[in-house]
Design brief:
Layout (H helix, E strand, L loop, with lengths): L3 H6 L5 H11 L3 H11 L5 H18 L3 H17 L9
């Protein structure tokens, strides 16, 4: 039987990246994994994931939550290394 870990492992995103989507969209990890996987396969989807993570970093910094901001920055860095297409312009 397939479980939550199997679903999370089937995506092209890391757990930290899925967690960032989960927090940004206020959804559970499985739904975030599904959303993230979908976004990674549509036009400008990777840029949307990057935008979500960047917005969460800004929220964390605004709340003076440096630990969360650092974690999100680490997730952003690994995302951009794994998915350099996200660096391309949204235009």
């Amino acid at each position: 039987m397939i479980n939550e870990n199997d679903i999370l492992d089937m995506t092209c995103l890391t757990r930290a990246q899925i967690d960032a989507i989960s927090e940004h969209e206020h959804i559970d990890m499985v739904a975030a994994a599904e959303m993230g996987e979908y976004l990674m396969h549509i036009h400008h989807g990777p840029q949307k994931v990057q935008q979500m993570i960047c917005e969460d970093i800004a929220v964390a910094l605004h709340a003076d939550d440096l630990q969360a901001a650092r974690g999100l920055y680490k997730a952003l860095k690994s995302f951009l290394v794994d998915h350099p297409i996200a660096l391309r312009s949204n235009s």
